[in-house]
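Open question from group meeting: does this chain pack into something compact, or does most of it stay loose? Before anyone orders reagents, we agreed to write out a predicted structure and look at it together. Recording both the input and the output here so the notebook holds the full record.
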Amino acid sequence: MRAPAGWSKREGTLARALTLSGHGLHTGRRVNVRILPGDASSPRGIVFRRVQGGRVLAELAVSPALRHGQPLCTMLEAPGGIRVRTVEHLLASLLTCEIDRATVELDAEEVPILDGSAQPWLDAIRACGRIELPHAKRFIRVRRAVKIADGAGTRDERSISIEPSSVYEVAVRNDLKGFGELRWDGALTPASFAGEIAPARSYGRVKWAIPAILAGYVRGMPILRGARLSCTAAIFGNRVLGGMRVPDEFVRHRVLDLVGDMAMAGAPLLGRVNALRPSHEMNYRLVAELLATRDAWEWAEFTD
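Structure tokens returned:
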């Protein structure tokens, strides 16, 4: 079988360290991030490292096993309770920029939201450059279909599945009152992600934001405390304040989140993901079920 078009055959890492600062969407707190390149002897995958005052609090290797349920974002939690929140945009960016080994240091709990999209991460990663490592790049090849579904036959039906394919494909359907049914269907490659998915921002209705923030304070859970017009496609009535950045921005952002959540598997997929109204919870359940079903997937390398 040929290597999937558009992807490298060798693993890669950053050519130099990346530094970036911003505030968290949910905590609202300032955070400084430093992404350190890996090398041939580094563990495969992405590792988050929480630091404070020069001291390492915890290291969290990206894995569905560390995922902790949280509304409106994906969060990892170490056995000692140290957390890293809102990892999905950065994970999608590292995956599609083909940064296969790296350590992400941050001095607060939440990865910065930046402008609400993956574009600033892509720009920063590309500015650092990528160098190849001697290892063959690994893909997760899907061998048989896996599906997760809730509310079948109801108006609130949600489903997500993955089936065999020779390339990484994603098809997402979503609907939003006032905007109708939105769809994105295509092959996912570094180029298609950069051109069609990365610019899509987080979004939400203004009338829902304030009650959600207040409910978060009551429950002692940070929700949208850092939401601003600068980092969110804010919906007021049937329009987006300032307009959409790309066509069908809402469904493209769902694709962005899905790619980031599926990156918890540790490698790009060779499979087709079909999703109806996906959520972070549904995405997690799919990747966890896929990896737990050992005859549903295998590692694939293309070295020729």
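Observations to bring back to the group:
The longest strand covers residues 168-176.
The helical segments are 88-96, 119-128, 190-197, 206-219, 249-262, 280-292.
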